[in-house]
Amino acid sequence: MIVESGTKAAKIQKFLGKDYVVEASVGHIRDLPRGAADVPAKHKGEAWARLGVDVDNSFAPLYIITPEKRSKVAELREALKSVDEVLLATDPDREGEAIAWHLLDTLKPKVPVRRMVFHEISEPAIRAAVENLRDLDQDMVDAQETRRILDRLYGYEVSPVLWKKVMPKLSAGRVQSVATRIVVARERERMAFVSASYWDIAAQMDAGADATPRQFGSRLVAIDGARVATGRDFGPDGRLKSDATALDEAGARRLAEALEGRDLTVESVESKPYTRKPYPPFMTSTLQQEAGRKLRFSADRTMRSAQRLYENGYITYLRTDSTTLSASAIDAARSQARELYGDAYVPDQPRQYTRKVKNAQEAHEAIRPAGDVFRTPGEIAREVDGDDFRLYELIWQRTVASQMADARGTTVSVRIAGTAATGEAVTFATSGRTITFPGFLRAYVETVDDQAGGEADDAESRLPELTKGQSLTAASLTAEGHSTNPPSRFTEPSLIKQLEDLGIGRPSTYASIIKTIQDRGYVWKKGQALVPSWIAFAVVGLLEHHFGRLVDYDFTAAMEDELDAIAAGTQGRTSWLSGFYFGAEQGSEGSVARAGGLKKLVGVNLEEIDAREINSVPVFDDVVVRVGRYGPYLERVRDGQSQRANLPEDLPPDELTPEVAEQLFSVPQEGRSLGVDPISGHEIVAKEGRYGPYVTEVLPEPEAPPAAEGAKPKKAPAKPKPRTGSLFKGMSTETITLEDALRLLSLPRLVGTDPETGEEITAQNGRYGPYLKKGTDSRSLTDEEQLFTVTLEEAVEIYKQPKQRGRRTAAATPPLRELGVDANSKKPMVIKDGRFGPYVTDGETNASLRKGDSVEQITDERASELLAERRAKAPAPKKAPARKAPAKKPAARKPATRKKAPVEK
């Protein structure tokens, strides 16, 4: 039996015993070549070799065994020699079906081969799967292969355009480019947004001493029958877009004063029953969204944790578009709900959830606890902790709640009327909600997105019993001002929801998409929000103007439909790819064919693209952001002269205001002159650079040596490299003096010569802080001032001490900030200052703060996420090599009468 992971193989081996050999392929064993070096020699001369797809021969893919999997393939071939049947038990989706096909096509077993599918790793499920084998599904394989080829054609044709016109090492992708466009489009809305201010009146009403509660809040909603404007009545340009009445500060304060002491009357009371049905069980996308909102997990962190839970037999398969539960799972959820909460909390009939999903994958169960009897979180607490425990608890709660009774209660809406002393008729409104039976809310409440607003399902707001015509008094009347807010940035959960709503991508790929756009530098995180970089603006601008169809939302979603048609066997793979790559004239009709053909699109547009125009992002007035080779910068023209300014990498685009730009332009690019070095006679200046502030000397331009009469003029010698020195912490370009600058430029400083070895010892300031250097041996200094004060005797003494690894003074240095307890290690977290900058640590794992993270604002959840990502990237401990038995020596000839000693194997 061949599965995909070693963890899964070890667990299944225990279930099946010695009659089975369970091996792991560790994912794909073959793929398209990643570069020219991977292309086999016999194909290197082919025009299509760089693509790895023979576009002129039915788009035949060129598969190679990836270098890191050659030893694995050899192991599997060796294992095949001693078996009488092969079960391909890879994951139960298109990717798993394709891996199984690659294994079959590569290993070419001479024994019978069957496909085995299971959705949870439990002994009953595995044994049932062994009894229900099937053949490979070639349509599923074709669907996956078509996607792989499509993504290769897209990436390998469009990415080089970005290299030539924007910046090297960028990438384009069928879904990643559209996801980047969504984030950039939201930032553009924020940049164009004009805030509007409006006022209303908050009133605290008093229903009398007999009422419970006696006081309750309400707000002014109408004046003389005209609705009072709220935030939704204003457009993104700051203008009122409806016929509502906008109150200003003076009007609101005047009206509040005119209402003091006036009689108010309950105009209407409307009561309605409140019912809330439970949420369906998790599928991949909703699990990623809710884990992001409730646990603050990134999509990638959620999927890594879910993968561990699945492989260890705690949950069912984690990649699914289904909300369906099996009959045994429904019984398990209902039994557990009844046991924990009572009969009243379980409806008479089981709940069935069906979901017609656009672009849905094969029908699986929803994500739920494994087995016919669910294990409660308390029962697995000793086996699972950290991220995995919290995610299991979330899945368990949602699954049990899905089979519980509705929450019931009452909602009440009240309108209160009165007349101001100045004659205006006013109306106040308030609402309340009371939950009389919590139902499924006892087990689970979905988290409301912080940025989306809204009210939690279990939130209550009680009002006193009010009747129409009842008199009220206003205990307080307060005029309150408000400002409209720009649309919220996407978070990982909200971006996943947006992709899903648009029908773009697959739930199983959302995590990798979001990780890719961050790894490529297109998007970075500020807290939980996703912020696009200026490089993303340039890339998206290029794709929108010259490859608009490729990043069109409807077009990308239509591709998903057509790929599904291939999976269903109703669309031809070759004709579809031909239409996408060559255009309609050589392929079938369809949305991709109508794009004109990718090959032609790239060829026609490449020379027309003006790189300078693409890399210029207008922001306001005559100010543009240029995306240059060394990063983004500001540029404008003043009095016919071009002005430039460095742009901080961690400044979100919507925070680049005219005031901020003016401040950046005020920093002279040529630097602040500090004076003249009395020894060299060169001017010393302080500058702001891409990597921080520094001082440098201004060297004169070298002159060309005189040439002999009639000879060709000689070239000027190359300009020597000026001395530079980074500013220490606490220094700034505005306050640094010439004396300080000259000290910095004096580094490295010769401390002296080691009397024992004769080697020179120097004090230097490096990327990781101040240090001593003797030959190739470096030793850290405790602070920057030591660079100028350390003596030869002190340096020799430092070198006599054993060399310390890691951060030499980390333990002695007080933390910059103390945080809470890490959710995984259960140890307190602190922020420390290290050689690479600030980092979070729990005493075992260190993780650098990222772009957008600040020491002052980072949350416990974000710190735990950074630590979890760092642990996931840490290399697995190497296994000790198997101990080989010593080579046998030739046995000495012994007398025939002497028997051989028994050999123990």
TrEMBL record:
> What name does this protein carry?
DNA topoisomerase 1
The keyword Calcium is annotated on this UniProt entry: no
Q: Where is this region: Disordered?
A: 700-728, 803-905
- Reply yes or no: does the keyword Isomerase apply: yes
Domain (Toprim): give its ranges: 1-122
Site for Interaction with DNA, residues: H28, R147, R148, D151, Y156, W163, R319, R520
Molecular function via GO: DNA binding; DNA topoisomerase type I (single strand cut, ATP-independent) activity; metal ion binding
Q: Which PANTHER family match?
A: DNA TOPOISOMERASE (PTHR42785:SF1), DNA TOPOISOMERASE, TYPE IA, CORE (PTHR42785)
- How would you classify this enzyme at the top EC level? isomerase
Which residues are named in the active-site annotation? Y317 (o-(5'-phospho-dna)-tyrosine intermediate)
Q: What is its EC number?
A: 5.6.2.1
Any idea what job this protein has? Answer: Releases the supercoiling and torsional tension of DNA, which is introduced during the DNA replication and transcription, by transiently cleaving and rejoining one strand of the DNA duplex. Introduces a single-strand break via transesterification at a target site in duplex DNA. The scissile phosphodiester is attacked by the catalytic tyrosine of the enzyme, resulting in the formation of a DNA-(5'-phosphotyrosyl)-enzyme intermediate and the expulsion of a 3'-OH DNA strand. The free DNA strand then undergoes passage around the unbroken strand, thus removing DNA supercoils.
A Pfam family hit = Toprim
* Record's compositionally biased regions (Basic and acidic residues): 850-872
Q: Which family does it belong to?
A: Belongs to the type IA topoisomerase family.
Q: Which gene encodes it?
A: topA
